[in-house]
Design goal:
Shape: elongated
Radius of gyration: 25 Å
Strand order of the largest sheet: 3-2-1-4-5
Number of helices: 12
Length: 403
């Protein structure tokens, strides 16, 4: 292990990564650089600096990545209407490539020859972090303590922390029994009673949303403005990408929107039960499909829907930096050049209803043709007869043969 000179650690300041920091110093006898990312998780990240200093760390990176996260990762993903296994909006998955990217950038800046993370050997995150790191720097060494050490329980981690004088901040009140991960797109819950797929989540588990039963009795209306597939304004007021998502999270959560309880298939092979709150993302998904319904050619829209599951799987499994994802992204982004206009939404007790959509310059909806009233010759209904007969030809031939 002595060949490792310097390692960049993805550091939250919590129990796991604080133990990892000390463990790296002792087991690898190397210099450690810490990196803490603010992705909008809603918790103060600055205390991580003080804690890292107390453990002897000289190079400490704390980066506000909220705008980059939404602009360069969340928004591109939502241009594809991305959803994994029909339900999951990939809130954890989409944060990992940005963290990997920044780990490698810091390694390059500081001359580090290795990076380290706190993901366990059972989950998807180890794959996502490491695939991203290898794609961006093929010669990087990766240290995954959970695959090496025997500190495989919270009690063992606490005992290690006590033995080595690692400060552990015990939160006041009842400790959460769940393993949680949060960023601007979502918050996830795993573990505890959720390990039983039959057990209903406790109401006090949810952090971002009220239950639909107690949401306001009056609907909330809002208008989203789109430019090339991305939301640029809410109710006519321009917002940055991170501001958009933060505002939608607040409004959506207040109206009981975005709760999800699923059993998903992890890349490593096991099934896992998780609960998610994605209020802003749920609104974005509904609204984006609405503006696309007005502005996308039928075959382009259908082709996007056919390719989306593959695109979603690439993100879920950690292949954001792969050439195939980048190829698909180029196609998706090209399709969004005409996705411009406005969508009006009605939010009510967990529901997101589209009640209007308009695009002044890029709409493919022609009222003169679509009308049930007199179209004044805009559409010749007699043309449909030949169209139907030609499309029925193969079935008519097959039917004759059967007779």
């Amino acid at each position: 292990m002595s060949d490792t000179k310097k390692v960049v650690l993805a550091y939250s300041g919590g129990l796991d990564t604080s133990v990892i920091l000390k463990w790296l110093q002792d087991e690898y006898n190397c210099e450690v650089v810490t990196f803490t990312a603010d992705l909008g998780q809603g918790e103060e990240v600055e205390p991580a600096r003080k804690k890292a200093k107390s453990l002897g760390i000289k190079e400490i990176y704390i980066d506000d990545l909220r705008e980059e996260f939404v602009r360069d990762y969340v928004f591109p993903m939502f241009r594809a209407n991305t959803i994994y296994e029909g339900e999951y909006l990939l809130g954890t998955s989409i944060a990992r490539p940005l963290i990997s990217k920044r780990l490698i950038e810091i390694a390059n800046e500081t001359g580090a020859d290795a990076v380290s993370h706190g993901a366990t050997g059972k989950g998807n995150d180890q794959v996502r972090f490491e695939l991203g790191a290898y794609a961006l720097r093929p010669d990087i060494k990766i240290i995954a303590p959970w695959r090496e050490w025997d500190l495989n329980s919270r009690q063992k981690l606490l005992a290690y922390a006590e033995k080595h004088g690692i400060p552990v901040e015990m939160k006041k009140g009842k400790a959460s029994p769940y393993s949680m991960d949060a960023n601007l797109l979502h918050i996830s819950y795993e573990g505890g009673i959720l390990e039983d797929p039959w057990a209903e989540p406790e109401e006090d588990m949810w952090r971002w949303s009220v239950s639909p039963e107690v949401a306001p009795d009056k609907a909330t209306y809002m208008e989203l403005t789109y430019a090339q597939g991305d939301i640029v304004a809410i109710d006519g007021v321009p917002h940055s990408p991170a501001e958009v998502l933060a505002k939608l999270n607040k409004v959506g959560g207040d109206n009981g929107i975005g709760r999800l309880d699923i059993v998903e298939n992890r890349y490593v092979g096991m099934k896992s039960r998780g609960c998610y709150e994605t209020p802003g993302g749920t609104i974005m998904m509904r609204a984006h499909r609405a503006i696309e319904s007005l502005t996308l050619d039928r075959e382009v829209a259908h082709l996007k829907d056919e390719l989306m599951p593959r695109y979603a799987t690439l993100i879920y499994n950690g292949y954001w930096w792969s050439p195939e994802r980048e190829m698909l992204q180029t196609m998706i982004d090209q399709s969004q050049l005409t996705v411009n206009g406005k969508v009006r939404l009605k939010l009510y007790k967990g529901n997101v209803d589209v009640v209007g959509r308009v695009s002044d310059s890029d709409s493919l909806f022609d009222e003169a043709i679509a009308t049930f009233e007199d179209d004044e010759g805009a559409y010749n209904q007699q043309d449909a007869e030949g169209f139907i007969k030609l499309n029925a030809l193969r079935m008519r031939i097959a039917a004759k043969r059967l007779k």
